[in-house]
UniProtKB/TrEMBL annotation:
Protein keywords: DNA-binding, Transcription, Transcription regulation
Keyword Transcription regulation: yes
InterPro entries in UniProt: HTH-type_LysR_regulators, LysR_HTH_N, LysR_subst-bd, WH-like_DNA-bd_sf, WH_DNA-bd_sf
Domain HTH lysR-type, residue spans: 17-74
Entry keyword annotation includes DNA repair: no
Taxonomic classification: Bacteria, Pseudomonadati, Pseudomonadota, Betaproteobacteria, Burkholderiales
PANTHER family documented for this protein: HTH-TYPE TRANSCRIPTIONAL REGULATOR YBHD, NITROGEN ASSIMILATION TRANSCRIPTIONAL ACTIVATOR-RELATED
PROSITE patterns named among the record's database cross-references: HTH_LYSR
GO annotations of cellular component type: cytosol
The name this protein goes by in its record: LysR family transcriptional regulator
GO molecular function, one term: DNA-binding transcription factor activity
Family: Belongs to the LysR transcriptional regulatory family.
Length: 321
């Protein structure tokens, strides 16, 4: 990272850089002018300009590009945006957590997980944590992988449990992550037990005449199915029902005739609880593995370590390993 490179060449950073200077980088990256930042930070505009010049002197490079319409970041300044956001967001969160720590000895744990993982892997571990540590506060943020990873990179989450986002991570982002793979993932198919599809290999084309219950069109599962069908030159079936994993399971369980399309954890979870058949469809359709992602330079708290252990137990129970 650019900031690490600058640090290697100068011992002045820790003594001379200030938090408000990182707020400047973050604010300009969000499209704010020095005047707007002065109002936000309760400072005069000359004080903001002086702070920017001092930062550039310390780093030995131009960070801001001044022009008639306002200010923007130079290429070097752009390379500092991730570090600036991480520092500002972590300190803002620390301020909130310190207030909580005065009331409780256990800090808030913020985890990100797509709905399918939150339902199948985190429900039992979170319930156990709540029972064991009555003063603990665990917050599960539901969302798509891209949004959750942005929050993790910004220091707004302690960890994410799920698969990699659909967008490609940069080498710099990948280097920041500590990854523990929980299991390889794949597209799985569920059906009513009365359909007679369980206990034997099922060809993908055999399922096409049935009605389909699927996640949204832009989901990774749906995209993977589409690619597999096109590779075999098979038609892509329309979704009779399009919904989230719990409702997909409920529709399939209601009556024979529907094929549900899910990730492996949701499929196994719903098959066990709703007495559904988990089909052995060929060919298998792989998905990115499910893992625990956290920032490499942020050691997990004792509460997070305990939760990780419970999640591993959930994986073993879910897949019978």
């Amino acid at each position: 990272m650019a900031l690490a490179t600058a640090a290697a060449g100068s011992g002045k950073l820790l003594n001379r850089l200030r938090l408000k200077q990182f707020e400047l980088i973050k604010g300009v990256s969000e499209g704010l002018s020095f005047r707007q930042l002065a109002d936000r930070m309760a400072l005069s505009q000359p004080a903001i300009s002086k702070m920017a010049r001092e930062m550039e002197d310390t780093l030995g490079a131009a960070v801001f590009e001044r022009h008639r319409d306002g200010v923007s970041l130079t290429a070097f300044g752009q390379s500092l945006v991730h570090d600036a956001r991480l520092i500002v967001n972590k300190l803002a969160r620390l301020e909130s957590e310190l207030a909580e720590l005065r009331r409780s000895p256990i800090r808030t744990l913020r985890a990100g997980a797509p709905s399918y993982t939150g339902m199948s892997l985190l429900s039992r571990p979170v319930a156990l944590i709540a029972a064991r540590h009555q003063q603990a506060h665990v917050e599960i943020i539901d969302g798509i992988a891209n949004r959750l990873f942005d929050m993790l990179m910004a220091g707004e989450l302690d960890f994410v449990i799920g698969s990699l986002p659909s967008r490609n991570l940069s080498d710099e982002e990948a280097a920041l992550l500590h990854v523990e793979v929980l299991y390889p993932d794949e597209v799985r198919f569920i059906a009513h037990r009365d359909m007679g599809l369980a206990g034997r290999p099922v060809a993908l084309e055999e399922l096409l005449p049935h009605s389909w219950v699927m996640p949204s069109k832009d989901s990774l599962v749906r995209s993977a199915l589409r690619a597999a069908l096109l590779k075999k030159k098979l038609p892509v079936p329309p979704a009779t029902v399009e919904s989230s994993p719990p409702f997909i399971g409920a529709v399939v369980a209601e009556q024979p005739g529907f094929i549900g399309l899910l990730r492996s954890d949701s499929a196994a979870y719903l098959a066990q609880r709703l007495n559904l058949s988990l089909l052995e469809v060929r060919p298998r359709i792989p998905l990115p593995p499910v893992a625990i992602f956290r920032l490499r330079d942020a050691d997990p708290s004792a509460l997070a370590v305990e939760l990780f252990g419970l999640v591993r137990e959930s994986v073993e129970t879910l897949f019978g390993e």
